[in-house]
Every structure is written in structure tokens, then in C-alpha cells.
Specification:
54% of the residues lie in helices and 0% in strands. It binds a DNA duplex through helix 1, helix 4 and helix 7. Pfam families: Myb_DNA-binding.
Length: 351
DNA sequence: AACTGCCCCAACCGCATTGGG
DNA sequence: GCCCAATGCGGTTGGGGCAGT
């Protein structure tokens, strides 16, 4: 049973999320963390099903999301991983911090697939198209009842993990030899594909203890730097992006523009009913983490509220150390959609 | 300006898996 | 072992934006 029937049954909202809904969900999760999704909508005051909330958080609201276009390194990384793993988007996404399975899947379907075809490479097998066609013709003549030995987009599942890993290394070596720089190859090859630390996922307050200190594999230096940061040195909102691996990429201003409209809508509504809205919101999520669109202190209270909210709540909920909190919180808040609002402000940031 | 077709991507759908009772 | 609810995952869809005519 999918989401649809439960949404219909409970007359829940579907379709695109409004800024207000985002606000509620973001405030709720940053304050209370990710727990039972089915109870989130009720507690956060949303007319959505838990599944929808989960998806929205994972694909859009999560503060550790990297936004904008994929870098060449990421693209090569995805190609190598897809060759080894097939359409296992979640596993691929686990190796690309800040990227979601949905995002990678969309990127693959809309861009990489076409690119490969253009290059004469079969996107399913990663082999030259002529070879694939010849093989499928041979399969057809040998055994007409079998359309394909292997599901499309999937590697041979009969292989053991060790065999798959070996295949992966062989494949990626070939892939890197032809496509990657030495640096990225070294970086990639040094990471075993089944390294569980890759599966790190941002879940406020729910980090398994063994991963709480695990460095993010993608950008060690950035991570280390953040470990040493204090809260009062949160990244400034204007010089925000993770430059480590994304230096060459062009960032889409999608989220910024989206949040700009978010802000302007909020400004509009605040001129009419800001007190009502923010008051209502604080009733929902408590005092610490409200979105207040009070022109004087909105961003400051947003930041402090959220951070304080997480800090106090999560310290109580889980044995996170101060440094570990920094690990979770100082990372990439700067490029979060709700953080990029700063661009709409007067240009003065007080952090 | 109006229309059309294409592309991208957020969100949905439905199946699989997991976990608790 | 069975049942059921919750969650995870991959495939698919549909709406909005944009370029071309």
C-alpha cells in the first residue's frame, strides 16, 4: 500500500509543499530529530502522511544537502558506482555525501544516460553499444525465450560481495584510467565500497555512536576544520559552499531563488499576520526553534533557535559530545535552503 | 503574444524489507 | 512462524519552466 490511499483516506494534502509546510517540518525535525515518521505530521501540525514528510526532509530540507549541479568528480563517481552497483540509487547516494538517491536518479535519467548513449556506451552495461547489441542478438538466437539474462541496470546478483567488490575495483580502474584525474582516482580507490562509514546519514539525535565521529569521506579537510569550529564560528551565509570538491561546479540558484520567494511570501504574510503566524508556530514547535519573520532578528533567531533547540534537546536524548554536535550541526547549514535566506537580507550578518 | 514540445525534477506509487508484538 | 505497521527503495508521473517556432 502506497502513500496515496492513506492520504486519500485521511484527506491529507498531496502535491508540492508550501513554504509554510516546509517551515513546520524543518522546525519540528531540527528540534526533535528524526524519530517515528508516522507521528511527525501530527506533531508538526501538518496535513501530510509520514511518508511524504520523510521524503520531503530527505530530499529537500535536510541541512547537509549539497545543492546545485554535480561536479565532474561526482559525475565520474556516479558512473563508476553505477557500473558496479546498477540502479541501486540509495547505495550510490550513500557514497556521495549531500546527494540524495532521488537527485542522483534524476541526474542519471536526465543527463548521464544520454551522455553515455551519445558516447556509444550502453548505460545499462557500460559497454560499447555495438557489443551489447551483438550480445543480445546472440542471446536471442541461442535462447529466444530469454530476453535478457540480467535485469536492466543491475549487475550480476549471483556474485558474492567479494566478487562484486573485485568487479567494482576492476571496473572503476578502467573507468578511472579513461576518465578521471589521478587525485580523484586515488581518493576513490582508497575507499572500500562497503565501508559502513559511507552510510552516514544526517539524523539529528539518532546517529549510531560508532558513526558519530566518523569523518565524512567526501571532504575530509572540510570535516576536520568543522570539528575544530566553535558554534560562534558558524560559516557565514554568504561564503557558504563547501569548496573542497565543488570548486569547479556551477551552482544552480534554484534553492536560493526558491527561498527568496519563500522569504518574500513570508514578508508579505508577516506584514499581514506575522504575529499570528509566529505565535501559532511557537505553539507547535515550542519557543526555541520558531521561525520568526520579525525583520530585526529573524535570521538570528532562526539560527540560534534551531541550534539551541537541537543542542539542548539532543544532548538530553543522546550522549552526543560537544564535538560531535559540532560535527552534525556545523556542517553545511550554510547551503541549506532555509539558510540561504541571508541573500535576501540587507547584507549584514551577525554571527 | 501564443502555441508547442521538450526537459527537469519533486513527489507519488507500489513493492520489498524490517521490526515489534 | 505469522501478522501488521512502519520504513526504505526504485520506477514512474505530471507540472512548471524554457526554448523554439
Amino acid at each position: 500500500m502506497g502513500c496515496h490511499s492513506c492520504c486519500v483516506k485521511q484527506k491529507l494534502r498531496r502535491g508540492l509543499w508550501s513554504p509554510e509546510e516546509d517551515e513546520k517540518l524543518f522546525n519540528y525535525i531540527t528540534r526533535f530529530g528524526v524519530g517515528c515518521w508516522s507521528s511527525v505530521p501530527k506533531l508538526a501540525g501538518l496535513q501530510r502522511c509520514g511518508k511524504s514528510c520523510r521524503l520531503r526532509w530527505i530530499n529537500y530540507l535536510r541541512p547537509d544537502l549539497k545543492r546545485g549541479m554535480f561536479s565532474q568528480q561526482e559525475e565520474d563517481h556516479i558512473l563508476g558506482l553505477h557500473e558496479a552497483l546498477g540502479n541501486r540509487w540509495a547505495q550510490i547516494a550513500a557514497q556521495l555525501p549531500g546527494r540524495t538517491d532521488n537527485e542522483i536518479k534524476n541526474f542519471w535519467n536526465s543527463c548521464l544516460k544520454k551522455k553515455l548513449i551519445k558516447q556509444g556506451i550502453d548505460p545499462n552495461t557500460h559497454k560499447p553499444l555495438i557489443e551489447t547489441e551483438a550480445r543480445s542478438e546472440k542471446d536471442w538466437t541461442d535462447n529466444p525465450s530469454m530476453e535478457s539474462q540480467q535485469p536492466k541496470g543491475l549487475p550480476d546478483l549471483s556474485k558474492t560481495s567479494a566478487e562484486m567488490e573485485q568487479t567494482f575495483h576492476l571496473n572503476t580502474t578502467i573507468c578511472f584510467d579513461s576518465r578521471l584525474t589521478e587525485a580523484s582516482r586515488d581518493h576513490f580507490m582508497s575507499k572500500p565500497i562497503y565501508d559502513p562509514s559511507y552510510l552516514f546519514e544526517f539524523q539529528v539525535g539518532n546517529l549510531p555512536t560508532q558513526y558519530q565521529k566518523s569523518p565524512r569521506p567526501y571532504d575530509q579537510s572540510h570535516f576536520d576544520a568543522n570539528l575544530e569550529d566553535e558554534f560562534d564560528s558558524m560559516p557565514t551565509l554568504t561564503s557558504s559552499f563547501d569548496h573542497g570538491n565543488m570548486a569547479d561546479s556551477n551552482f544552480s540558484d534554484y534553492s536560493t531563488s526558491r527561498m527568496s520567494s519563500f522569504l518574500s511570501e513570508a514578508k508579505e504574510s508577516s506584514s499581514n499576520s506575522s504575529h499570528v503566524n509566529s505565535h501559532a508556530m511557537s505553539n507547535i514547535v515550542g519557543n526555541g526553534s520558531t521561525f520568526s519573520w520579525d525583520v530585526d532578528n529573524k535570521l538570528e533567531s532562526l539560527f540560534q533557535g534551531q541550534l539551541n533547540g537541537i543542542k539542548s534537546e539532543e544532548v538530553m536524548q543522546s550522549p552526543l559530545q560537544e564535538g560531535q554536535l559540532h560535527t552534525c550541526l556545523s556542517e553545511d547549514f550554510s547551503n541549506h535552503p532555509l539558510m540561504s535566506l541571508s541573500e535576501d537580507f540587507s547584507g549584514e550578518h551577525h554571527f
